[in-house]
Amino acid sequence: MSDVVISPALEGTDSSLSEVRDWVTLLKPRVISLVVLTGAVGLIVAPGHLHPVLAITAVLCIALGAGAAGALNMWWDRDIDAQMRRTATRPIPAGRIAPDAALTYGIVLSLASVGILGLATNWVAAGVLALSIAFYVVVYTMWLKRRTPQNIVIGGAAGAFPPIIGWAAVTGDITLAPLILFAIIFVWTPPHFWALALWAHGDYARVKVPMLPVTHGARETRRQILVYTIGLVPLTLLPGLFGFAGPIYTAAASLLGLEFLRQAWLVWRDAQDAEGRSLTNDAPAKKCFRYSLYYLAALFVALAADRLILA
């Protein structure tokens, strides 16, 4: 059998594509997808009108800013990422992207996203975008993450800013409505992330990151997931009560919330040993984590549909 000869040109193409994928990976594209959605919905439900080109620009700037924060997070956390199974193959710990290059990349994208948003829409929206980047990188990543089990509670605010940014891009101000959307994401973040932390606690313990399951145990984490979910569901009904959402959203929020409560209850009732460790390999927590992603996306899609259909 003859040897297969691979063209040098094809090898170069594969290498270039791999490098592009690494730079995209630094932006945390899975996280960006929810950020873009919630930011776009904030823009859709805001009163007033923004030219479609400017609206698209605003959403792209939100995505770019979130990606920049993700790159800076990976730059700072490269030491612990290298020791965690879930993150060891990321571009920086795996040696495919140099730390200094990632730092420059994150800073340039941060400045570009804020500057373009300010010029395209207004500086209120740009200022909130800058605040969200700084909050995620400085407050959460550099300060809270390695110091307190409340890291994700306080630091979760960073991911709750996009609806405010979208709203402000249209209106130039911040009112109660976007603050309610901020609050929904803020309260959603702990049960979402703690469901992940339950089955990834070994990684966090290994690198001494004080996530709640590491510092307070699995049983208390399950209880907190249920408590936060109980608080979240009535909070999601406020848009209807305050008049910036209608029956489509309210019905969706009610049904989605009931299922989230069921998922959180199953996490709480998961079979446990005497120390609260799961006897089912944290299967309910994994399902709850996956559902929480769907939940937030569906909630904001329903809000946008309500506005677009009933406006």
From TrEMBL:
Compartments in which it is found: Cell membrane
Reactions performed catalytically: heme b + (2E,6E)-farnesyl diphosphate + H2O = Fe(II)-heme o + diphosphate
Origin: domain of life: Bacteria
Gene Ontology molecular function, alphabetical: protoheme IX farnesyltransferase activity
Record key words, sorted: Cell membrane, Heme biosynthesis, Membrane, Transferase, Transmembrane, Transmembrane helix
PANTHER family noted in UniProt: 4-HYDROXYBENZOATE SOLANESYLTRANSFERASE, PROTOHEME IX FARNESYLTRANSFERASE, MITOCHONDRIAL
Protein name from the UniProt record: Protoheme IX farnesyltransferase
Upper classification of the organism: Bacteria, Pseudomonadati, Pseudomonadota, Alphaproteobacteria, Acetobacterales
Gene (name only): ctaB
